[in-house]
Amino acid sequence: MNIKSDPQLEKLINLEEKRQSETWSLIASENEMFDEVREILGSKLNNKYSEGYAGKRYYNGNQFIDEIENLAISRTCEGFGANFANVQSYSGSPANQAIYKALLNPGDTVLGFDLNCGGHLTHGASVNFSGSYYNSITYKVDPQTELIDFEEVRKLAYEYKPKLIICGTTAYSREIDFQKFKEIATEVGAFLLADISHISGLIISNLHPSPVGIADVMMSTTHKQLRGPRGAVILSNSEEIMTKINKAVFPGLQGGPHNSTTAAIALCMKKVNSREYKDYCKRIVENRKVMQDVFVDNEIQVVSGGSDNHLLVLKVGTGRGRQVADELEKLGIIINANTIPFDPSSPFKPSGIRIGTPWITSRNIDSEKLTELTTKIVEIVKSTNI
């Protein structure tokens, strides 16, 4: 990148680009954006304000912006097989906030997945808006199997009568049974939100069951498996629910959408609806299997005993997760420390690490190199000198 007016900033950006090119990111929530998508983010679409929705803007001069947003919506609906979509949320957390605002009142009870067991901050963590403004109750995994404990989910649902149940994860490696969640939600009269940010590419590629037609509302970021911009889409088959969500996004939580992001989502959704992309998602899963086999062969403990998706959570010893992550970074392998279910240590010194394969798959890693990287991880995990 060439920024003549600011060589200091130019140097820092170039150094970060160099770091990305010279290291291997195994962070499950990161990916390499499609090049054409990245180019759109720097377009003159950034110059335009477009508060409102297509055909109902508060500023003039939005005829082409309207067409771009409608294109993004139609391609998103096509990709997921949903009836309605909102593409204006700035990212996943604001999108979840909009869903809360649309369906709940402050103080309403929400049943979400415990953060330490693989849930997300916005699923009811006490330090987040979802745990501050709402009565947050969380379900966990079974201590023995480390799989979602549906008996506990049903028990808590009947005891607390939540208005919203959330099924979705950020560090859970197993297939999500949306139908079981829906049965429980129906029994207690709750809305069901499926946060599919981590698995949306697998869903589009038919490598994971879809919540469309089961959950009342779905949300996905667009920058993880989808290789799009930092944004989010909200989906529903209910026109009534989507009308409420649209009002919650604008004017409820934000002003004008980021039009360059909207256009980038439109291109991203065109790309993920292709055969080539679905083959790419198959490789994501295949690469995860390669890594899992190496860990299992070397007796590294995998949470829940394995994975059905793109990620693995490994047990690396009490409080050692961050140390392992720091040592791996010295070798050019980027992962994140992560809590494990019922972690005996604190979130600041967790006992696990999380590994995902989307980015390395985007970089066309071969099995030999992947096995080499995985073997290095094994060596660091087993090291007694860190």
Overview of the molecule:
The chain has 386 residues and is an alpha/beta fold. The chain has 14 helices and 15 strands. The protein has a 7-stranded mixed sheet with strand order 4-10-9-8-7-5-6, with helices on both faces. β2 and β3 form a beta hairpin. α3 packs parallel to α10, α4 crosses α9 and α6 packs parallel to α7.
Task: List descriptors.
386 residues, four-stranded antiparallel beta sheet, 14 helices, alpha/beta, seven-stranded mixed beta sheet
- Judging from the principal axes of the Cα atoms, what is the shape? globular
Question: Which spans have pLDDT < 50 for at least 5 consecutive residues?
Answer: none
Let me know the average pLDDT.
Answer: 96
Bin the helical content: 40-55%
Content of β-strand: 5-15%
Calculate Rg over CA atoms: 21 Å
Terminal Cα span = 37 Å
Physical arrangement of strands within the biggest beta sheet = 4-10-9-8-7-5-6
Would you count the extended β strands for me? 15
Query: What's the SSE pattern?
Result: HEHEEHEHEHEHEHEHEEHHHEEHEEEHH
Tell me about the biggest sheet? 7 strands, mixed
Structure classification? alpha/beta
Treating each run of at least 4 consecutive H or I residues as one helix, how many helices? Answer: 14
